[in-house]
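Late entry, written up from scratch paper. The run itself happened at the end of the previous shift, but nothing got recorded in the book at the time, so transcribing now.
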Amino acid sequence: MEILLNVAIFLPLVAAILVAFVRNEKFSKILSLGVSFLVFLIVLMLFLNFNWSLQGFQYITKINWIPSLGISYHVGVDGMAISLLLMTAVVFVVAFLWSWKVEDRVNLYFALFLALETACLGVFSALDFFLFYLFWEGMLIPMYFIIGLWGHDRKVYAANKFFVYTFFGSIFLLLGLASIVVYGYFTTQTISFDYMFHKNLSYPIWLQSIAFLLFGLAFAVKIPMWPVHTWLPDAHVEAPTAGSVILAAVLLKMGTFGFVRYSLPLFPDASKQFIPLIFFLSLVAIIYTAMMAIAQTHIKRLIAYSSISHMGVVTLGTFALDPNALNGAIYMMVAHGLSSAALFMAAGFIYDRIHSYHMDDLGGLARYVPKLAVFFMIAGLAGIGFPGLAGFVAEFLVFLGTYKNYPIWAFIAGVGVVLSAAYFLYMYKRVMFEEETLSEYRLEKWKNLKDLEPHHIISFVIITAFALLMGLYPYPFVKIMEHTTKYVLGG
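Output as recorded:
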């Protein structure tokens, strides 16, 4: 089974090279969709065969790469990683489906998304710091060009801002990695970039504090946490629909994944020391950005701010240092990935039909595109944590675990749940039902609006099915994620 993980990681990259050389648009679309579906099947097989009763990582491959520097090709997964791999594979299938009718520079478009998929899968699988950093940096280039070439009016500005912010954070990540590698060399006389090697070292509190801040700044930019969040609304607003889907569903999770994978296990004492700071930043993100979302009239910007608010819930649950809260945080990574993908798909469809994201130009769409109205509502309910959908399970576990040790923080954070319902219902009412502000000419024109096409419907059905499955039958997902919780927190 180990070989399958490596195939899943690098198959999209091979396909990207083929797409770049063959340069046939139909071939590019078929190959991209076929490869992404094959990767999904492989990851699903790995997920179903994952043994949550075994401790440690599974499907491990370790090959010496640069022995003189202690660098190896070392990959493997735990419960969190395999869950995020599955979510990533699902979302990329949806992104390729949604992009079926792209006509602008098709070969380059699909090649970049395929390369991006390899980078994303690699980040979640890497167990070598050097390899992890390569994948982490590798995803910047495809996303930069996706935003900059296929985005909207201010696409170059948004792409540059995305790159500068995330590259700035990556510099601190590199410094953090260097600090612990150098310390490991001086204490053991062995230079190694291996995750397990450093997991078994005990760092002094001064080094933990420095490394935690260096790692944490890189992860905070990626999430993004307040106040380094300002690149995200611009990136989402200008990105093409598939780019926004991947950005919200997958790339944002790399930061929270980093906190769970690296900060908590490697720097446990510093993690406890910085709990008040992380909680403060999380609560500001939850409440402030939710209020910012309420103030928006641009639906894509509203959804972007809602993502920042929900990621605040993830960081809150991560640093509550409670098994239920950490399970909920990991669950929220996947649940938010699904709901945000569907919301950005709905926003993108509206733009394709009406060429506007502004609520002042919208209203009464439920009468003309009823299929979209249904899926849009389900996506929104999943995002605000409606019972029966994945978001509810995630938020329930986060608040249950956080309330146990930090009841006041949990109570304040709960305000964000109310605000999330407020901004989504406000947006849905303005976009789908209100017709009073629209001219007769516009309403007459909308009678010819075309509802969801088959590739749109299949994309929504895939996302909705997973959100419902995780909401109605969370047990296997929680058990697999608990595999990571036990490893990080003990027990």
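The mean pLDDT is 89.
(Scratch paper discarded after transcription.)
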